[in-house]
């Protein structure tokens, strides 16, 4: 089984998106996402793939989950289930689950770690949420806090959790 990380940015209410868009623009979060996922496998749902401004992300194995057996996404492999996608991965692959809500809910029980950007703010509107991070299952292994600044309109922290 590959090593599975879930990566997401969440607000105080665990909101992750609205109308298939990110809730906050945090350049450092985007840099961290790129640094962690480059050279690895990313698994996402169809709507997440469709939200990517330039399609498949470069220098990563892009995997899209879709229940449509005829679905094709340029630059990505398509699987009908998370289980099938994970079976296609080697034991030495590092897999990042990048969304959306339903894919996070499917993956949280098999993930080895969570790489969350915890945003100290609340989105005015949200229609997608991250599953609850149960402290009996997940323990915090690192936290890197950042204050708001000219490029980041609210404070945030990069928080990594490992399975207890």
TrEMBL record:
Enzyme class, first EC level, given as a word: oxidoreductase
Keyword flag Repeat: no
Molecular-function GO term, any one: NADP+ binding
Enzyme Commission numbers on file: 1.5.1.3
Record SUPFAM superfamilies: Dihydrofolate reductase-like (SSF53597)
The protein's annotated pathway: Cofactor biosynthesis; tetrahydrofolate biosynthesis; 5,6,7,8-tetrahydrofolate from 7,8-dihydrofolate: step 1/1
Classification via CDD domains: DHFR
Gene Ontology terms describing biological process: dihydrofolate metabolic process; folic acid metabolic process; one-carbon metabolic process; tetrahydrofolate biosynthetic process
Signal peptide positions on this chain: none
Catalysed reactions, as listed in the record: (6S)-5,6,7,8-tetrahydrofolate + NADP(+) = 7,8-dihydrofolate + NADPH + H(+)
Keyword NADP: yes
Keyword set, alphabetical order: NADP, One-carbon metabolism, Oxidoreductase
A GO term from the CC aspect: cytosol
Residue ranges annotated for the DHFR domain, each copy included: 3-163
Family classification: Belongs to the dihydrofolate reductase family.
Function: Key enzyme in folate metabolism. Catalyzes an essential reaction for de novo glycine and purine synthesis, and for DNA precursor synthesis.
Protein name as annotated: Dihydrofolate reductase
Source organism (scientific name): Jilunia laotingensis
Lineage: Bacteria, Pseudomonadati, Bacteroidota, Bacteroidia, Bacteroidales
């Amino acid at each position: 089984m590959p090593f599975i990380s879930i990566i997401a940015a969440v607000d105080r209410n665990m909101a992750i998106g609205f109308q298939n868009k990110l809730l906050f623009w945090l350049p450092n979060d985007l840099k961290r996402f790129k640094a962690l996922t480059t050279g690895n496998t990313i698994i996402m749902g169809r709507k997440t793939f469709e939200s990517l401004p330039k399609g498949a992300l470069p220098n990563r194995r892009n995997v899209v989950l879709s229940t449509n057996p005829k679905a094709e996404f340029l630059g990505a492999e398509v699987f009908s289930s998370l289980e099938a996608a994970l079976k296609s991965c080697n034991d030495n692959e590092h897999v990042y689950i990048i969304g959306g809500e339903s894919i996070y809910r499917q993956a949280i029980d098999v993930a080895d770690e969570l790489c969350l950007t915890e945003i100290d703010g609340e989105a005015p509107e949200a229609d997608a949420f991250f599953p609850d991070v149960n402290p009996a299952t997940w323990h915090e292994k690192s936290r890197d806090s950042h204050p708001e600044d000219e490029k980041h309109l609210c404070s945030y922290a990069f928080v990594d959790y490992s399975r207890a």
